[in-house]
Design brief:
Elements (H helix, E strand, L loop, with lengths): L5 H19 L2 E6 L4 H15 L2 E6 L2 H9 L5 E4 L5 H7 L1 E16 L9 E2 L1 H8 L9 H6 L11 E5 L4 H13 L1 H6 L12 E3 L1 H11 L3 E6 H6 L3 E2 L1 E3 L5 E2 L3 H8 L26 E9 L1 E2 L2 H17 L1 H6 L3 E2 L2 H14 L1 E2 L7
Parallel strand pairs: 1-2, 1-3, 5-10, 6-7, 6-8, 13-15
Antiparallel strand pairs: 3-12, 4-8, 4-9, 4-12, 4-14, 10-11
């Protein structure tokens, strides 16, 4: 056989290298939380550039994400309502937080700019209960003595889909209003007493932008991206605060993350003079026993990349990254909990 020239050999090696890369690169799938979608999409771009592995993430709401990971049709689910340890054990799932952020009430009231209107928990609950019907209601006006409010009907906008954003929002309302807790409660989907409904953070944002006199609730990144008018809220310590990374971080500083209970943590109505009262986290769910270990490994690599290389993107979108100490606990959990069918750790 005629020996290969040096140039031919180099070309052959390069071809084999490219071929190997294309075979190894793969797309993973995820579904769930719309709360986390803006930063998840940003992470996916960076991860693709760094590794050639892609992510197809369906922003369908936390309820949909839980259903899809239980049915094993995606590589991971994402939910803003954490599952209890009993639920994790029942469905053989691992759970960990990936990022924290804030849910914010947004309004469309002529003449009122972002951060001008002040509300407290009781008044916000009464608006959603249908007890406060106009923007110049005495209860709202009392919180805003220097603001001229119109005699305009309030149009309440909420979510139709199973939503972790709804869970965070209704969990807060249940903590600040006994009437809300007894009549409506807290879950990913509730029977809203009044108003109209949109699907996803995107749907609520669209309705509020189009409907004069409306109020809704969205994850903060959606409020910024859509240039929406957010409100100030009175927090647990009686201080009026604006939503931003500082106030989300103040609330998040109260968290006590524990791997032994699936990192279960609720961050609404937290103490602290600077704490935003409707703060929450997004949690990832993965099957403990991986039917496709290669996909499972890339999924864990994606979140490792997000923890180590995606923090700046998270901060730019006003999310709060997980502290390094918590990341260490999470990645230690991966090594002991997420395995192939043969029992071999995949990370």
């Amino acid at each position: 056989m005629k020996p290969l020239s040096a140039l031919t050999l180099l070309a052959t090696v390069a071809t084999l290298s490219l071929s190997s890369r294309s075979v190894m690169a793969m797309d993973i799938t995820g579904a769930g939380s719309t709360f986390v979608y803006p930063v998840c999409a940003k992470w996916a771009e960076g991860f693709k550039l760094a590794t050639q592995n892609g992510l197809n993430y369906q922003s369908i709401g936390s309820g949909g994400g839980i259903k899809q990971i239980r049915a094993k049709v995606v590589d991971f689910g994402a939910t803003d309502k954490p599952l209890t340890q009993a639920e994790l054990d029942k469905y053989q799932l691992a759970q960990w937080p990936v990022v924290m952020g804030g849910v914010v009430p947004v309004i469309n009231v002529e003449g009122v700019s972002a951060g001008r209107l002040r509300l407290d928990g009781t008044t916000l609950a009464n608006i959603y209960l249908g007890k406060i019907l106009r923007w110049n209601d005495p209860a709202i006006q009392a919180l805003n003595p220097g603001l001229k409010l119109p005699a305009q009907d309030i149009v309440v906008v909420s979510r139709t889909d199973g939503s972790g954003t709804t869970f965070i929002y209704t969990n807060y309302l249940s903590k600040v209003s006994a009437e809300w807790k007894s009549k409506v409660g807290s879950d990913t989907a509730v029977r809203w007493p009044t108003g109209i409904n949109g699907k996803g953070n995107e749907g609520v944002a669209s309705y509020v932008r189009q409907q004069a006199g409306s109020i809704g609730y969205v994850e903060y990144a959606y409020a910024l991206q859509n240039r929406m008018t957010y409100v100030q809220l009175k927090n647990h310590d009686g201080q009026f605060v604006n939503p931003d990374s500082t106030t989300f971080g103040a609330a998040a500083s109260n968290a006590n993350w524990k791997p032994e209970n699936g990192f279960y943590e609720i961050l609404t109505d937290e103490p602290g003079k600077n704490s935003w009262p409707i703060t929450g986290a997004t949690f990832v769910l993965m099957q403990k026993i991986q039917e496709n270990p290669d996909h499972g490994k890339v999924a864990l690599q994606f979140f490792d990349w997000a923890f180590r290389k995606g923090q700046q993107s998270a901060l730019q979108l006003n999310y709060i990254p997980m502290p390094d100490s918590v990341v260490k606990l999470i990645e230690a959990q991966w090594k002991t909990v997420v395995r192939s069918r043969s029992g071999t750790p995949i990370y």
